[in-house]
Design goal:
single chain; alpha+beta; globular; 140 residues; 3 helices
């Protein structure tokens, strides 16, 4: 049982990790490559610990969108992660966790769940602004 704020989540961390490991889908755009690189270089330990506790591979969101911000010097990313488990206590609509630059929310749209995940699923949406870290002409 994982306790986060007033919520209790029954998460199968090992199955979730395995699903992320076997999920080979990865967006191939420059924005997505930047997301992966920026995650490796700019995430705070509390975000990494949060992800590790839930079995999430932050470099493999189920869905990822990007928008240039801050005079085209950074990218605002929004997306979703899915984990294998269920909410035992707490409301979906009331869960907003702010960790550093990340905002995580429970959502229940359940679109784009990776095919390698079966059983009860928890969907976690996120938003974060990350710097542009790869060499490219995209932010000029």
């Amino acid at each position: 049982m994982i306790h986060i704020g007033d919520w209790k989540l029954a998460v199968d961390v090992e199955k979730t990790k395995m699903a992320f490991e076997f999920n080979s889908y990865r967006c191939m755009s420059e924005e997505c490559h930047n997301f992966v690189e920026a995650c490796e270089k700019h995430l705070e330990h509390k975000v990494l610990d949060f992800a590790r506790e839930l079995g999430i591979d932050l470099s493999k969101p189920s869905h990822l969108e990007s928008h240039q911000v801050n005079d085209n010097t950074a990218i605002m990313y929004s997306g979703k992660y899915h984990i294998i488990g269920e909410i035992v206590e707490g409301e979906v609509d009331g869960w907003d966790i702010i960790l550093g630059e990340h905002c995580f929310s429970l959502t229940d749209e359940m679109d784009q769940v990776p095919i390698v995940m079966d059983g009860p699923i928890i969907e976690i949406s996120f938003e974060v602004v990350l710097p542009w870290v790869i060499e490219s002409n995209i932010l000029v």
